[in-house]
């Protein structure tokens, strides 16, 4: 069974259709990355999969159940989403932020429990944020802040984690730090991870499965080594490129053409 799938999915805002009659299957226990040009609908698609946006047509299934018919808490116990560029209230501490991840397990009758506290501590430990738990989120560096938000999604203890551009605005070291963290969560704990990334080379290196979105549809989906081609980059990003093989990982590496100070001819 797929952890998450969409059938005949049409999404849009008002009259504006963004995703049209799309079918998608997210493999369980794998890392899936959505790629595509700016404004092609990656965030729209991700948000709909967390039921933050109601489809105009079609359905989304989470472990075979239609999310449209599920209770919000039930979805939140199975799926967590980290939106693009999240903002926390001024002065909120890391601990207070991560505590919110336990919301799906709370009720009016149920007090903050030992399990809640342990889940928060585990989440902070796995992102190496425990020592920063009393710091205000808005006082942290970009990489630390992103780790705080990821801790929030981990405290939710869901199998499926959706992340919209978790590495944007981070320097190279911190991009790799976040992607390594997500890689370990997938390898060691079997989380199904779905994320939007802009860097095709990092997407090819970390993803088991890539979904390329173009013209309201899935242009291609599959293993990076099977689908990342010059033709795909040309059609999806309108860019000529060379594709070679990463000398360390063996995964596809895309070198875009365009201008530059060339000391070799293409
Ligand atoms: N809340 C909204 N209301 C109206 N239009 C939106 C809204 N959010 C996104 N859009 C539009 O939907 C299209 C897809 O946006 P988005 O899903 O954010 O693209 P991506 O994440 O691929 O860059 C864009 O044209 C954008 O302007
Ligand atoms: Mg987006």
List keywords for this structure.
266 residues; alpha/beta; four-stranded antiparallel sheet; binds adenosine-5'-diphosphate
List the helices and strands and how they pair.
Blueprint: E1 4-13, E2 16-26, E3 31-35, H1 42-49, E4 57-62, E5 65-66, H2 72-76, E6 79-82, H3 94-99, H4 114-126, H5 142-155, E7 160-164, H6 172-189, E8 192-196, H7 200-206, E9 209-214, E10 217-222, H8 224-227, H9 230-237, E11 241-245, E12 252-256
Parallel strand pairs: 3-8, 3-9, 6-7, 7-8
Antiparallel strand pairs: 1-2, 1-4, 4-5, 9-10, 11-12
Descriptive report:
The chain has 266 residues and is α/β, with parallel strands linked by helices. Helix content is 31%, strand content 26%. The protein has 9 helices and 12 strands. It has helices at 42-49, 72-76, 94-99, 114-126, 142-155, 172-189, 200-206, 224-227, 230-237, and strands at 4-13, 16-26, 31-35, 57-62, 65-66, 79-82, 160-164, 192-196, 209-214, 217-222, 241-245, 252-256. The chain has a 6-stranded mixed beta sheet, sandwiched between helices. Helix 4 runs antiparallel to helix 5 (142-155) and helix 5 (142-155) packs parallel to helix 6. The longest helix has 18 residues, at 172-189. The relative contact order is 0.16. Bound molecules: adenosine-5'-diphosphate and magnesium ion.
Q: Quick summary of this structure?
A:
By secondary structure, the chain is of the alpha/beta class.
